[in-house]
Structures are given as structure tokens and as C-alpha cells.
Write a structure and sequence with these properties.
229 residues; alpha/beta; Rossmann fold; 2 domains; six-stranded parallel beta sheet; 8 helices; binds magnesium ion
Length: 229
């Protein structure tokens, strides 16, 4: 008797978004350039307000505009009102900010397997980015978590008995916690893999080796690379 539902026979991919599929540096640079060039925001004000916001909460565009308004002594909501149409335009072209291997990779895994996008950050902000990027088409489910630890908690829930789980992420800290959660699960550990994507233009470079994770430079290499015994 087969106790595992048919769906559970599929490989489960748990995939990250920022800096792994999506070049957030390039996207944020364009956002900053727009504010500096079109709205006259001094670059220093942009940087300082962003850093201050991120020290107290998860990043969100509208909140950042509000903090900048305050810092520049502008009437409340002025920047939000004026800049939001431009920000929406930026979001509508979000697909241009994917790394070159991102969409071919997503297309390939979505063909046969179950794909969950698991992203850390402010849910409303992340949702907007992910939707505008068109990535939803390749995902069975999209999950946002407000803490990095939350990713490991999701792995614990998703890595059910006998499943082959593939974790693909770029943040070494997050990924080690996810690998630990996977190791404690009842998933098919002999077939599961934890993959760290090391991008020279990304946030974490170089990535120090770790016994529980493989490191690849290109997403296509995941299909070539074998687990080291
Ligand atoms: Mg990431």
C-alpha cells in the first residue's frame, strides 16, 4: 500500500528570490538613480535613510519614501504621491533584473516538479516585486517570512516523509539553518540536496565551504553536479 500521496513523489524545490534569482542590487540602484535624478534627493540622504529604516524594520519602498520626506522637510505624502507612479513603472519591468540563468532554471524545474518560492522580507514589498517580475508562473506556492529563522521553520514543515527536497539559496546563514532543519526531517536525505548559489555580483561572495551545502556558480550546474560523498 502506498501511503505517500502522488504529489509527494515529485521533487520539492525550495527556492530563494533576492540576490539568487533576482539582482536586487541592480534594481535598487535604478530606484536610487530615479530618486536622485528625477526628484533631486541627495544620494547621501537616500543612503542614510535606508540604513536607518533597515536598522529598525524590514525594508519597504513606501516607508522609505516617508522617511526621506521627513529627512528633507517635505510635506507628508508628497514624495509617496509623486514617486509611486515611477516606482510602479520600475516594478512593471522587474523581469529585467533577473540573473541570466534564473528563468531557464525556473522553467526547467517547474515543468515536472513542485516549486516553492521562499522569500525573506516585508511581505507586501516582496509580493509586489515577485508579482511584477512574472515569476509566479513558475511557482506552485509563494511564501514570505519576516525572519531568516522562518525559512528553517518552513523547511521543517515542507520536508515531509520520503520527499526529495532541493534547497537553492544564496545566503549562507539562512541556508545552514535550512540544511539543519532538513537533516532533522524525515525527507529522503540520500536524494535531497542543499545548494548555495555563489554569484560574484551578488551579496555573498565568496561563500566559505560548508559540509552540508554544495556551492554552484550557475544554476545550470545544479543539473550537472553530483553530490560529493
Ligand atoms: Mg537571497
Amino acid at each position: 500500500m502506498d501511503l505517500i500521496p502522488a504529489n509527494n513523489k515529485k521533487t520539492l524545490w525550495i527556492v530563494d528570490f533576492d540576490y539568487m534569482l533576482f539582482d536586487l542590487y541592480r534594481f535598487m540602484d535604478e530606484f536610487k538613480a530615479m530618486l536622485v535624478e528625477e526628484f533631486g534627493v541627495p544620494g547621501k540622504t537616500y543612503d542614510e535613510t535606508k540604513a536607518r529604516l533597515q536598522r529598525r524594520t524590514l525594508y519597504h519602498f513606501e516607508e522609505h519614501l516617508r522617511v526621506m520626506e521627513k529627512a528633507l522637510g517635505l510635506p507628508p505624502k508628497l514624495m509617496v504621491r509623486k514617486a509611486m507612479p515611477r516606482i510602479n513603472a520600475l516594478f512593471s519591468r522587474a523581469d529585467r533584473y533577473f540573473f541570466r540563468d534564473a528563468i531557464p532554471f525556473m522553467r526547467q524545474i517547474a515543468k515536472r516538479d513542485e516549486v516553492i518560492l521562499l522569500s525573506y522580507g516585508h511581505a507586501a514589498h516582496q509580493r509586489r516585486k515577485v508579482r511584477a517580475s512574472g515569476l509566479e508562473a513558475y511557482c506552485d506556492r509563494i511564501i514570505f517570512t519576516p525572519t531568516k529563522k522562518g525559512k528553517a521553520q518552513w523547511v521543517k514543515k515542507l520536508a515531509t516523509r520520503g520527499r526529495r527536497v532541493m534547497i537553492v539559496n544564496d545566503d549562507p546563514g539562512e541556508t545552514r539553518m535550512m540544511a539543519a532543519a532538513l537533516r532533522k526531517s524525515s525527507a529522503d536525505l540520500s536524494a535531497s540536496r542543499v545548494i548555495l548559489v555563489e554569484r560574484p555580483e551578488g551579496k555573498y561572495f565568496p561563500i566559505p565551504p560548508h559540509k552540508d551545502c554544495e556551492v554552484v556558480r550557475r544554476l545550470g550546474d545544479i543539473f550537472k553536479k553530483r553530490r560529493t560523498p
